[in-house]
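User: I'm curious what two different proteins look like when written out as structure tokens. Can you demonstrate?

Assistant: Sure. I'll show them one after the other, since each token string lines up with its own sequence. Here's the first protein:
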Amino acid sequence: MPSQAFGNLSERMKDIEQLIQAHSALTQFRTARNAAQRAGGSLASISTVVARLVKAPGRGRRAEVGAVNRAAIVLLCAHLQGYVEDLHAEAAKALFGNMRIDVDSLVQHAQDHFSNPHADRIEQLFWSLGVQRVLEDISWQRTSNRTVRGRLTGYIRLRNRIAHGSQESVSLAQVRQFKQFVELFAQRFDARVHDEIGNITGTAPW
């Protein structure tokens, strides 16, 4: 059973799907507009314009949707950070909820120092709960733990450049790859935290 944090992330990821759809819609509109200009009012050519509106755009870099792609990268980083913070809070309650500890203050204090979910920062965040090396075994098919950590760093650096005004060239393929990375990472991370808390408390946390 996944955590509530994972469920929240799944809802948030619908934002990314909307941006991907917006990418396709904008590209189709641009292609149809170009076809209309070439048609020059010719009735025989109007079918070409309509076809461009209903046909999915092909592959390739399209400057007119660059802002949409950059926005998707920034939003994906935000959703990933939000997921990690939600899971940290959920884990804290599972570990300390029955003790005389101000769990909310503990979580807030730890998260006040957490930004940009680099691998080492995620591990430091969960270390505050006594969960050590929480990313140690996070990997999946054709993606080693070292690669996971490297891709986390790469995506966050890209996000930071965009957030600071750099007009990065980002393709729809990169957005889809990052989206898939976040989803796979969250699946493995959720399971890892679940198991670690279960080992500590002797009870499944969710």
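Here's a second, unrelated protein for contrast:
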Amino acid sequence: MHILVTRPEPDASQLGERLATLGHDVYIEPMIEVSFDTGEEIELDEVQALIATSRNGVRALAQSPALEIACRLPIYAVGPGTAAAARAAGIAQVIAGGSDAAALLPLLAERAEANGGALLHLAGDRLAFDLAGELSDLGFTVLQPMVYRSEAATAFSEELIGCLEQGEIEAVMLMSPRTAQIFGGLMARHDLTHTAERLTFFCLSEAVAHQIARLGGGRVVVAKQPNLQEMLCLVADVAAKSGPSVGN
């Protein structure tokens, strides 16, 4: 299949390599750009544990002078990808939770101590769930420095516009509701909504599918579980049933 990958870098290139290894043609155009340049300082005095709800939070930590201290603390991580990133950064005690920040809440309530020191959430500038507020209601002290920023794309490249218009892209990988929202908005901005009818949208979750469904048209398929491996299985299943790709 000819697949458009919309993730931010470096995740986009990593996913593209995996898809190419599986025999797909990949076009990469991130819908979000992540920056660590203006992130807030990470202070770990009297912190009992860290919370990472994305790999970008771990990447920010890996660039911070606080990493040495952080490696001696436990970290609660959303999903296998973020947990793997934490281990790669040198953190030995990684506690992997569910697929989103909300799924971490019961795990933290069970294993962390409300009076054992602050929890530090490695947060971005946009939060889909008020984890700090929920934890505060349970009696925890939560620090939430903004350690990275994410800027939405404001236009498609001319090359991508041409690929969509000419039907050279068969499928789009969408890994977050915000990415789906941005992609749908830019499709409308460039008057490309009619091209959606021939696209398959691979969605990480029902929340992602809900956002892209607003575009109208196209085939929307959702991973059984919200993780990258299930997304790759979904692509393989659809590709096997679709037959040879255009141009192959």
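A detail about the second structure: The longest strand covers residues 118-124.
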